[in-house]
Amino acid sequence: MIDKHSSIPIYYQLAEQIKGRIHRGELAPGDVLPSERDFAEQYDISRMTVRQAITSLVNEGLLYRRKGTGTFVSEPKIEQAVGGLTSFTEDMRSRGLEPASRMLHFGEVPAPGDVALILGIAEGDNVIEMRRIRLADNVPMALETTWLHPSVVHGLTEKEAESSLYSYLEETLGLIIGRAEQALEASLVMPEEADILGVEKGAPVLSIERRTYLADDRPLEVVRSKYRADRYRFMMDLQRAK
Ligand code: GLP
Predict the structure, then answer these.
(1) What are phi and psi of 187, to 5 degrees?
(2) Which of 131, 223, 234 maximizes ligand 1 atoms within 8 Å of its Cβ, making it the mutation to test the pocket?
(3) Which candidate, 8, 99, 176, 211, has a CA 20 to 30 Å from the CA of 219?
(4) Are residues 133 and 30 in the same domain?
(5) Nearest to 80 by CA among 237, 240, 211
(6) Whose CA is nearest to atom 2 of ligand 1?
(7) What is the distance in A from the centroid of ligand 1 to the CA of 42?
(8) 185 in the same domain as 215
(9) Which helix (H) or strand (E) holds 221?
(10) What is the 191 CA–ligand 1 centroid distance (Å)?
(11) What is the pLDDT of residues 169-225, one digit of tens each?
(12) pLDDT (tens digit, 9 = 90+) per residue, 61-72?
């Protein structure tokens, strides 16, 4: 099954074999991977080569290592379409996952300079700031800090914000959310965020900033989120310009 005379590196061939087993369901999420020695004996290759194959799959997020116990098959990533202006709650429900939030902070704070500028208020004026851990089926997926324009959002309580902000804005306040600008970039988790997200220190995350406006163009929110790169994959539908 491994061709030692091929120009394709052996570690790569092994990584493809393991991927095949995962895709065919022979190795399911949460399963422990056979040991390096088992692979080395089975394919008659060196343990170094096996380690290289496994490391490449860990880096791709298909496998994860747990200290002292072994290497395991990851859950498939959540595929998130980028394009629709949806809420976390909607995104999770549409996948049959149960959304929840854990509130780390909720209250009025003086607006940070860059946030004030985007929201169109004076620096130091009060904004509503909330920091939520977003969970799906009780697993932390993202850490999200939101600043809301104080005169647009009335009466929001911690309890409501813990369920869905967008449904409160639309259903209770009758606001019409119009559009958002969103930027996505790669970064590494900050040390104090790693435990909260349940990832290793220095793990990759996807940083997203969203600036959302109401249909009448009033600024509504600035949101900075860190999504777990091991759980998320962002999908885009591209059309070739005519
Ligand atoms: C996503 C977006 C945020 C938005 C949130 C609203 O997480 N990245 O910008 O504030 O959805 O979600 P919910 O209505 O579940 O509170």
Answers:
(1) -155, 180
(2) 223
(3) 99
(4) no
(5) 237
(6) 87
(7) 48
(8) yes
(9) strand 219-228
(10) 24
(11) 999 999 999 999 999 999 999 999 999 999 989 999 999 999 999 999 999 999 999
(12) 899 998 889 999
